Amino acid sequence: MFRNTVRQFIQAELVPCQSRWREQHRPDVDAFTKAGALSLLLPDISEEYEGGGGTFAHEAVVLEELARAGVQFGASVQSIVAHYVVTYGTEQQKRRWLPPMARGELIGAIAMTEPSAGSDLQGIRTSAWREGDDYIINGSKTFITNALLAGLVCLAVKTDTKATGPKGISLICVETKDLAGYRVGKPLEKIGRNGHDTCEVFFDNVRVPASNFLGATEGKGVFQMMNILVYERLSVAVAAIAAAEQAVTITTQYVKDRTVAGQSLMDYQNTRTVLAKCKTEAQVGRVFLDSCIERFINNQLDPVTAAMAKYWSTERECRIIDDCVQLHGGYGYMSEYLIARMWVDSRVERIYAGTNEIMLELIASSL
Ligand SMILES: Cc1cc2nc3c(=O)[nH]c(=O)nc-3n(C[C@H](O)[C@H](O)[C@H](O)COP(=O)(O)OP(=O)(O)OC[C@H]3O[C@@H](n4cnc5c(N)ncnc54)[C@H](O)[C@@H]3O)c2cc1C
What we know:
This protein is an alpha+beta fold. It contains 11 helices and 10 strands.
């Protein structure tokens, strides 16, 4: 029932807006409030905070349906930010931010990456120093999804600029409305995923109340991010496997309908072999992914296994979609075709939420 609601909402409200969103490089803000009204945002957050009261299985349904429809929407980032608040926020912070996030009235962004610190998160320079009851923030972040619409930015900062390594990094939630010294750049020109915005954000002596600090003590930011990155990486894996399955489905239909030299494309042995391999890999991925989802719901998904899921599923997804583009011939290169859009949109999944090379480093550390 939940999947049907999500699917109908996506088809009725989001699919028709996609080409316009891609042109304007961001979703319409009312997409969030419409999704919120149907309880489709924060499906795995407790009802106490107006979330859906479900588990990660519900979140996975939303991610899968978005991926299958090829829809770009910042709902996944919204959930990730909510999980930072749920896991590390005070009761007051949860009550202040989660209900408007669930209603789609407050949009979240997560800001870790800086121009000179992406994979090397410990090298961030954006600083926050304590002055009375406030923190004063200076620095900049880049590649921030949802930044244009975000009213709440979960920000990684250095609270101790002298500390090296992971020490000295903390998280603070920045409420951006009418905030002096805070500026968002124009949406960056990406090769794909233009249905939602990705921007630079700048902090020039931005004053944020100390009550917005996330966590009990300073210097725990890296640990906090590593913990929630398990959720984020699993979310990426869910979208990747759903996209891979969808690529196989739409390509199977395409090759059955397409006639080449008087013969259905499906009748060529190469077509069947390629699709058979793609289907097998997508199904193998599905079994591992479902096991990861189950482990996550039981609080048993460790960072190494989450890294394996993110790495493996996104590598296979890109390969499967590339094979499916090939089977579409020239039509596979036309943006009008879903498979072409999936091809450009999927590429970044090997880069964000930690690059796949970093995933392999993490996995290797367990050997
Ligand atoms: C569309 C998009 C949306 C994004 N959204 C967000 C967001 O909302 N919030 C946010 O904070 N960030 C976001 N990011 C940033 C993303 O997480 C980073 O781009 C990513 O972590 C890589 O960092 P980098 O771009 O600085 O690359 P670099 O760290 O410069 O990496 C360059 C290359 O070097 C490799 N490399 C780096 N270190 C190692 C190592 N130790 N061993 C082996 N290889 C290594 C990398 O794997 C990569 O291949 C987004 C990025 C994109 C493209």
